[in-house]
Each structure stands twice: as C-alpha cells, then as structure tokens.
Write a structure and sequence with these properties.
The chain is mostly beta strands. About 0% of the residues lie in helices and about 60% in strands. Strand 4 and strand 5 form a beta hairpin.
C-alpha cells in the first residue's frame, strides 16, 4: 500500500502562483512514476505532469512554460509549481503513484485549485 497526502491548493487570482505538494509513504517501489492529474467540473480527469524516479519530466502542452514538476526521492515527495495561473486551471488536482514492476496504482484525495479572473 502507498499513501499519498496532497497539500498546497487554494484560491488565487489570475496570474498568481501556487505550489502543490504530494508526499508518498508506505511500500514505495524504487521504480516509479508520480504524476499530477486534474479534473474540472463536468470534464474528464486529465494528466498535467509526470516525473519518474530518476527525474524525467513530462508536462502537457497547456501548462508548459507555466508549471514545473519536481521531486525529492529522499522524502518521496513531488511538487507542482504553478505560475501564471489562468481561470482554466481551476480544478481538483490529484496526485498519482505508479510503481514498477507490477500494477501499483494509487491516488491522493485531491486538492482544490481555484483561479479567479
């Protein structure tokens, strides 16, 4: 089992910044990918960013240049630095952990990000 605890969401004006954190604990496999997804009201959950255990990062096009993903393996924590936020970024942001080999797939409880115009 892996537990994920997210923090850092909130309300911010357009153009502002927020930093999300996700701390993983439990049976963490050395090979893993930690990701951030988001789900806006009435929309499907979508991938925002992912980062492997050795630091390889992927950001979706809509957030490139504004968001940065990072992690510290010592603390098994991933971060999502969100700058130049837009109202379209408003969503519940979820942390996801996938461990390999096997089918480990865990989700955090989600943290609300609201960007006002």
């Amino acid at each position: 089992q892996v537990q994920l605890v997210e923090s850092g969401g909130g309300l911010v004006e357009a153009g502002g910044s927020l930093r999300l954190s996700c701390a993983a604990s439990g049976s963490i496999k050395r090979m893993n990918v930690m990701s951030w997804y988001r789900q806006a009201p009435g929309k499907q959950r979508e991938l925002v960013a992912s980062i492997t255990d050795d630091g390889l990062t992927h950001l979706v096009r809509s957030v490139k240049g504004r968001f940065t993903a990072s992690r510290t393996n010592v603390k098994n924590t991933v971060y999502l630095q969100m700058n130049s936020l837009k109202p379209d970024d408003t969503a519940v942001y979820y942390c996801n952990f996938r461990g390999f080999p096997g089918s480990d797939d865990y989700w955090g409880q989600g943290t609300q990000v609201t960007v006002s115009s």
